[in-house]
Amino acid sequence: MNASLGPQPIEPETVLDLLLHSPSPAPLLSEVGTVTQVGDGIAIVAGLERALADEVLEFACGLSGIVLDLEPGRLGVVVLGPSDQIMIGEAVKRTRKVVSTRVGPGLLGRVVDPLGAARDGLGAVKHATLHPVEAEAPAIRDRQAITHPLATGIKAIDAAVPVGLGQRQLVIGDRQTGKTSLCVDAMLNQAHSDVICIYCAVGQRGDAVAKVVAALRAADMLERVIVMAAGDEDATGLAYIAPYSAMAMAEYFSGQGRDVLIVFDDLTHHARSYRELSLLLRRPPGREAFPGDIFYIHARLLERAGQFTDRVGGGSITALGVVETQAENLSAYIPTNLISITDGQIYLSPRLVRKNQFPAVDLGKSVSRVGGKAQTAAFRKVAGNLRVTLSQFEELEDFARFGTRLDDATRARLTRGAAVRGALRQAERDPMPAISQLVILTAAQTGVFDDLDEAAMRAVMDQIKAEAPVVLADIAKQITQGAELDDVAQAEMCALAQKARATAKGGEDVPIA
Ligand SMILES: Nc1ncnc2c1ncn2[C@@H]1O[C@H](COP(=O)(O)OP(=O)(O)OP(=O)(O)O)[C@@H](O)[C@H]1O
Question: Measured in angstroms, how far is the CA atom of residue 428 from the centroid of ligand 1?
Answer without folding.
Answer: 8
